[in-house]
Amino acid sequence: MFRGKETCIVTSASIILLLIISGCVSTPQSSPIPESSPAIPPYSQPHNPEEPSLLIPTINVTSYPANVTGETNFTIQFDVSGGTNLGNISHASVHWGFRRGGADIRDYGSFSKVYTGRVPQQFSMQLIAPASGTIYFRAHATVDGAEIYSNEYEIRIIQQ
């Protein structure tokens, strides 16, 4: 009877020892990223230089006057960002006219000086207001071959 207890103790000790040993040699699990860590944006991760990372190009009008006195200078400012890792801006301008634009940017009839550069970039266009009426405009850019347009805005001309 005493011998049965010894066997049970030895067996239990062996099982515990095996569990301890198997825990020491198991494959380590990767620790999860803490929730407080900021996510790494896809564009900042390493990539193959032959495969450019893509970001949707954007254009945002940042400043323009709601009203302007006729035949005076006024300024429209806008930002261009995004594109591939090349970020080439081959065209940046403000297209404007006296009627709302349609689907084609050429519907506006006029455009400002054309600028070029690399993203991200801020542009400042100075135009001369006509004598009267309302001007409708959109900022436009070509980034890495992609055409992008801002929303349409209007400026009321105040007669002198």
Task: Itemize the secondary structure elements and their pairings.
Layout: H1 2-24, E1 55-63, E2 67-69, E3 73-83, E4 88-97, E5 110-111, E6 115-118, E7 121-128, E8 133-143, E9 146-149, E10 153-158
Parallel strand pairs: 2-10
Antiparallel strand pairs: 1-3, 3-7, 4-5, 4-6, 4-8, 8-9, 8-10
Radius of gyration: 33 Å
The CATH top-level class label of the domain at 53-158: Mainly Beta
Beta-strand residue percentage = 35-45%
Number of helices: 1
Poorly predicted regions: 24-48
Task: Please count the beta strands (DSSP E, at least 2 residues each).
Answer: 10
CATH superfamily of the domain at 53-158: C2 domain
Q: In CATH terms, what is the fold-level topology of the domain at 53-158?
A: Immunoglobulin-like
Gap from first CA to last CA: 117 Å
- The geometry reads as rod-shaped
Main beta sheet, described?
7 strands, mixed
Helix coverage percent: 10-25%
Order of helices and strands: HEEEEEEEEEE
Q: Which structural category do the helix and sheet elements fall into? A: mainly beta
Mean pLDDT comes to 79
- Looking at the overall shape, the CATH architecture of the domain at 53-158 is Sandwich
Question: How is this structure best summarized?
Answer:
With 160 residues, this protein is mainly beta.
Q: Main attributes?
A:
single chain, about 160 residues, Immunoglobulin-like, 7-stranded mixed β-sheet, 3-stranded antiparallel β-sheet, 1 helix
Polypeptide structure, described:
The protein is mainly beta and 160 residues long. The chain has a domain of 106 residues: C2 domain (Immunoglobulin-like, Sandwich). It is 14% helix and 42% strand. The chain has one helix and ten strands. The strands form two sheets. Strands 2, 4, 5, 6, 8, 9 and 10 form a seven-stranded mixed β-sheet that branches. The protein has a three-stranded antiparallel β-sheet with strand order 1-3-7, with no helix packed on it. The chain is rod-shaped and about 115 Å long.
